[in-house]
Specification:
353 residues, mainly beta, 2 domains, 24-stranded antiparallel β-sheet, 1 helix
Length: 353
């Protein structure tokens, strides 16, 4: 593979470019220096904007397309938002000795405020580095069929061009004389969903299950409802975020805690939908979801949380006869007195719920 191929102009569009070698965004007109290009510094982006940045026609971009069991095609879009000076954009296509239909590997690094932007369902994700593997065309498929999905890793880190392919290395990026160095640290991957801003440290998406997982610790916040004070803003933590591309759902998972004013709610999983102003809290066996406000305590398998009012109610499961199944318990204050209640298909637990 000739070094000159690294400096060819390319506008990365919907389909990856298949052929031999690596293709990069435009470089300065001067010849490349004799030494390796300096690594792009890892810079933590500013808090994520409320909306995705507009994509200009000349910004490097690529997308993966996933066809679900329902026949619907859903798209994941990846965009490098900064200038050429802010990082690199390169696609490394299959080599001559690789099988037909092998995937292309794309690297975007971007130290600008906008960083590399990944749009998955309702979520806009930003970080300094993205490494994308996009599947190619299989020999037994007609043109335009199959392919299009792949694998994405997003994190802090750097990427650079090398003077030459390192001897003895056989991975695709090394053969294309590209070095990518991902790093992970808290609060370097920014996620925006509507009014809600979340932070984590690494995103991995894979076509095998169509789920984008963002590793934590996760922290998040949402402004207070209109007319309320800043003390009523919603904030919280979880172990990770899961975005299911096929189901179009975003879930906070693992020891989720939501706090707003006097209300603190806990659950094992929370289906979060900022656009609908609702979060569905789900408990685990033996450990129901819980919401506490002052002396009022509500515990149930599933609790609905209204993001625009910070109120809650219970989503009860019923059997074929209409009878409530599972356990719903609570302790509610009335002035200086507190009363307890229970509605159950079985006895309640003794852990305060």
């Amino acid at each position: 593979m000739k070094r000159a191929l690294l400096w060819l102009s390319l506008l990365l569009t919907t389909s990856a470019v298949y052929g031999q070698g690596a293709v990069a965004t435009p470089a300065p007109p001067a010849a490349p220096p004799a030494t390796s290009a300096p690594a792009v510094p890892a810079v933590s982006p500013a808090p994520a904007p409320a909306e995705s940045a507009p994509a200009s026609d000349d910004q490097p971009k690529i997308q993966l397309e996933r066809k679900g069991d329902d026949g619907k095609v859903r798209t994941i879009r990846i965009l490098k938002t900064g200038s050429d000076e802010a990082g690199i954009a390169v696609t490394c296509t299959p080599q001559d000795d690789e099988p037909a239909g092998s995937p292309s590997v794309v690297v975007y690094s971007d130290s600008s405020v906008g960083g590399v932007q990944v749009t998955v369902d309702k979520n806009v994700i930003r970080a300094p580095l993205a490494i994308i593997t996009k599947q190619g065309q299989k020999e037994d498929q007609k043109e335009g069929e199959g392919g299009g999905d792949g694998h994405i890793e997003v994190s802090a880190g750097t990427a650079r061009f090398l003077d030459a392919a390192p001897e003895g290395k056989t991975d695709r990026l090394s053969r294309c004389a590209v070095e990518a160095t991902p790093t992970t640290s808290p609060n370097t991957v920014f996620v925006t969903q509507g009014k809600t801003n979340l932070r984590g440290q690494k995103l991995i998406y894979d076509e095998k299950d169509g789920i984008a997982r963002i590793d934590g610790p996760i922290t998040f916040e949402r402004p207070a409802p209109e007319g309320e004070t800043d003390a009523d803003r919603l904030s919280g933590t979880s172990q990770r975020i899961e975005v299911n591309v096929d189901n179009e759902t975003t879930t906070l998972a693992g020891e989720v805690v939501l706090t707003s004013g006097e209300r603190t709610s806990k659950a094992e999983r929370v289906d979060y939908d900022d656009a609908k102003n609702v979060a569905i809290l789900r408990g685990s066996p033996g450990k129901p979801a819980q919401s506490v406000k002052g002396k009022d305590i509500l515990c149930a398998a599933v609790i609905r949380y209204y993001l625009d009012t910070n109120n809650v109610d219970v989503i009860a499961s019923k059997d074929e006869s209409g009878a409530i199944t599972g356990t719903i318990t609570g302790s509610f204050s009335d002035g200086d007195e507190a009363t307890s209640s229970s509605s159950s298909g079985s006895s309640s637990n003794s852990s305060g719920c």
